[in-house]
Amino acid sequence: MSLFSGKEDSELKTRIGGGGEGEVRQKQPGTMTRRSLVRSGLGALVAAPWAGGLGAAGVHSHPGPRDRAGATRQDDEIVLGVSAAFSGPSRGLGTELYRGSMAYFNHVNENGGVNGRRIVMKLLDDGYQPDPCVANTIELIQDESVFLLFNYVGTPTVTRALPVLKKFRDQQVYLFFPFTGAEPQREPPYGEFAFNLRASYRQETAGLVDNFLSIGRRRVAVFYQNDAYGRSGWAGVREALARHGETMAGEATYMRGTQFGASMRGQVEILQARSPDAVICIGAYQACAAFARDAEDLGLHIPVANVSFVGSENLLALMREGRADADAHTRFLVNSQVVPSYEDTSLPAVREYHELMARYDPPPPANVDRITPGEPYTTFPQSFVSLEGFVNAKLITEIIRRMGDNPQRSGIEEAVFAVRDYDLGVGERVRFGPNRRQGLQMIYYTVPEGERFVPLEDWEGRFPVS
Amino acid sequence: MTAMIQKGEEVHRVRKLFRKTRFGFFALFGIVVLAISILSISSVSRELRDEYVSNSESIAKNIADSSVDILLNRNLATLQSLIDQFVQIESIRYIYITSDTGEFLAHTFIPGIPEEILASDPSATEPVERSLPGLGDFVEVGSPILSGVAGTVHVGMDLERLGLKIQRAVGQQVYLLCIILVTGVLASIWLVNLASRPLTELLEYVVALARERGGARSTHGDVLGRDDEIGDMARLMRYVADDAGLARDEGTTAGGGD
Fold it and tell me: How many CB atoms lie within 10 A of CB A430?
């Protein structure tokens, strides 16, 4: 299923190999009509239990014919299908996640690959939009016959792609380690098609609420992206507050894709009218940075928390850009993370991350700047997002290694469930099982210090209640 | 008698008569077009509005039916994803879902839920018109989820967009009717002219006949040659005039013999 014109197809349809000279192919959101978007979306949401009886595909090399017979191919590559944001206001997330993974895959491939096979990522750009993500997923499964899906970015995208996995359930294509903490890929009816490594938004928001309440900030408001992602975080805050007998002090929303230059005065004023003690933001870095900026400018001097998806370094870079009073401007920020601080080199995985990021310094996919012309992307030496990508790559490599010389999709689930007490080097052991499809549980809290986020040790000292 | 039948005056009267006829045609067509336009505006706007409300009710019911499992599973992200897709439909401007206790579980408002909505009855399902400051005017319909025990879906339709659609539909009809009006009037003018020209000629002939019998015969011979009612009347008048002249001549001759 190609939604490209021939020209776009020839220009953008590329693949990325283990050498890191990858390119990404963009799925144009406008290539589907409104009617077809709605139809495809609704169809996806009601799921598709009539999936055809196609056999599980084995590892294959791209480009090549589809292999739906389940036979193992003797090729030298394992292809991971990726649909993520490499363009648009959230492209920093897809790009940094990719860079972190590439640092590790480069290392693996340079050392002979996994059981003699190189790990290759097939990248498609969805611009953090649900419909292109659905189309990409179908293409990755049907046309590219990837071994598994990996490193998807975002809740609205993943939420809509999950029914596609159910549709093709007989092909046993699993989604690994999406960059989202939402519930749909953790719960029925789609939880069985995904494996998560990171903690959930429910855990992140519960941690933030617990900490705010513990220091006497009981009136917690929410600023969120008005889509599945925002709603997921909103629901997490609501549940966490309910456990303490509290309700949300207020809420304000913004539209997905909002840029840093947009005014958030309306949202700030809505929340100001509710006199909150703290605001939890469930959004992407451009909009959340705009909100934090306007909140500070309009005198809403209360802690502004963000969850891990925000992309802390991207957010901080935007807020500090061109400001003489950058530190004062970011003093109320507090971000939850699902990986430890990349400053914590006492952890083996973090040390390895530093070493491999420095050695390979993976560039963004080759045509990212062409996708978003005039806006060259500046990479970060280290970031929470790229560390997460690195850790994701490390674990998927281990899972594929455990599948032996002839990995089959049908053996994926068993290989994952065999990961019961695995030390990934992040200070927390990874465990999976039939009723446990999320590997890590820890939440970390960080605050800006100069141009970096550092661990927050003392909530009360940082955010005293006057 | 001679003063009364001045040629110019009579022709002018005939033209005035036909001008009235033409005006009559125009007025009649205008009244027809106006009446049809009013009827059309009324019926089109009513039917479009009914259709929009009906579609919105169907959408609200569709969402309500699809939401049951999602709500019971407390999967609000999927619920939001569901309404986000429906709100892409043209003319649907907002959707919100309230729980059985009136809590707002998912909505599409940016930057926040309007106060008017917050203050409204969360379980209401009857169509209601709303004017939301900064957003516009809407018709809102509702549909209960699981007979209302799981909540209510509310769908807001943009009245401004509906108004534009009605205007467009009515405008097209009025445009067509105006074309018919102009064409009809032009056609009627042409037909009236067609009918008035021989009548004018006949009148001119009669006038000439009355004023100067011999000259009339030679000057208006074409009227006498017409193969229609005008020709018949001209010949009849010629005959009557000749007959009257003959009688007069005979009378004069007989009188001279006394």
Answer: 20
